[in-house]
Amino acid sequence: MESRKNKDQPIAAVLLGRAFEPDDANRIFTEKIQQRPLFLTPSSPPPSDLRAARRRALQKKTEQRKKALKPKPLSASQRRKLGLYDVPREGQKYTIFEPLHNLWLGYMREILGGEIYTGGEGAAAKLASADFHGAEVEVVRSGCVSRVGIKGIVIKDSKFALEIITRKNNLKLVPKEGTVFRLEVPAPASESDRHQETATAKQDQPSSMVIEIHGEQFQYRSADRANKKFRSHFSKTL
Amino acid sequence: MLSFPAPSVYQASKCFVTCGVMGHLEPKQPPTKGKPWATLTSQDFIHRADLILPQEAFEAVNVALLRAKPAPEFKKVTMSLQDILTGVFFAEYIKKGDVMMLSGGRRGIDNVYSLKHGVLTLFLDKEAYERAGLVGKPDGVKGKRGLKPRWVVTLDLKGDSMFPGKKGFDRLVYAAKNALNTPVTWLFCNTSSTTPNPDPLAQHSPSDITSAPEVSQNIDVAMPVLQPEVEFLTTGHKEDLESFSTEIYEWLSLVRLQSPRVRLGDQIDPFLCRYQAPEAGQAKLCKISWQGFLTPSWSRQTLIDVVTAIPAKTWFSLSTTTFSKGVAGDNSECTILRPPGSGGEYIMWEVRGHE
Q1: Which GO terms describe its cellular component (chain A) (predicted)?
Q2: What ipTM, to 2 d.p.?
Q3: Using a CB-CB distance cutoff of 8 angstroms, which residues of chain A are in contact with residue B175?
Q4: For residue A156, how many other CB atoms are within 10 A of its CB?
Q5: pTM, whole model, 2 decimals?
Q6: Most B CBs within 10 Å, among A141, A147, A184, to test the B interface
């Protein structure tokens, strides 16, 4: 009876019959299930002929030739393997970099000029594009507290970190993220002061300009920073 | 026993009620373990202590406590953290002696430093912590940390590594010199029995303060029944115990505040105040209060003295309140009541926050 009828009917028609009226069920079954082709295997690409294969090989060759003409920068692992930026063990001495530091002080005094005494916006703009290789920095504030107190001369200023050599001849790589660095540029002693220095035993310390750099905002290579205009941002984490 | 993890949302302070029996008091060995004594010593710095007695017992306490023993003293001094960590002060008071110090400020808002049993605890905000460079733990409820978390740094100054020249100590001195270098007002209390002879504190010109006890006598109050019924302590009567202890604690707190609501013959419009003092009886009470920078060992000693001075059947109540801790200004408190006619029984209310 009914069960025998159901056995003859396909399952899809039985299920449709439960949900729809018999006319609708039949229509849906014939249109959408019976007459629709069912692909058993995915359509494969047409077999390639020789001409297409030759064309593809030629394209690949021209691309490779173009790539070989463009020089690519070294990747990080290649750099590490070549050891181009490593400082040799004999060179890791603080005393070697002290003359560099004096050069940097001279360079700073030259670009700041009179603004070393007054500071202000002009000085800040010049400092933002200045180069800091050879500066004596101290880490003053950091999200990672073990970095606070590191003091030394900058020997490498890369995009995200500063490489610093400390007085105890240790090389430290300090990330710029979340760190505040402090630099000091002592004002030049004038000629008359120098004569007075020999005469009097006690001398007041010459004034110096103290600069604090927020590493978060400074994550650019020193070459890229030269033309960058810095705008003041309110930092959420300060 | 069970240590629960730090709460992730703000939790209001809770009051824990304990009913127990105080052991026999040995005069030579003051008890340190066990419920009323351990709770008293676990408080950190006590701001206020109140003792409530019936008027008849006042004379005995007056002779034994107030006249026989000197009032607790402490000093107020302005120093910077660097002064504490260097020189004779560090060698004498911190390494050899035992002092308690607390700096001024509110814990959730300013930078507060405290020193107890040689452990220096710094409660810092984000900027001070990042500038100091000392390793610490996050402070405060987890959910509230957000953009500006606060930090706690704990250092054991009596340890072997805390000597000038060692790396850890040098980092602390660097932090004290550069980041935490403002002078703050401290409350200082020397808990050891000896004072070093050229006093290292003298150069900072401390001001000595004595917390003399204030006595108010002959307070006529309406008294409730202070003795709990025996059934309260059985398991089925938890709500009865709860309502009894709440009523007694409320009454004791109002007596501490010397509120007119518990006085005899008080008539106030119930629209203004819904509190009704329990009219089980009336009595004359006296209240002795100390306010200042008190030590938990002093409060424990006071409890022992009161128990030995007072006749065995009289009741008394001792409450100690600490300095406020969090941003909301909650402090923790411990109130002990010995009911009348009992042999060493006590009820203790301990109000404690999670901070």
Answers
A1: nucleus; ribonuclease MRP complex; ribonuclease P complex
A2: 0.79
A3: 148
A4: 15
A5: 0.79
A6: A141
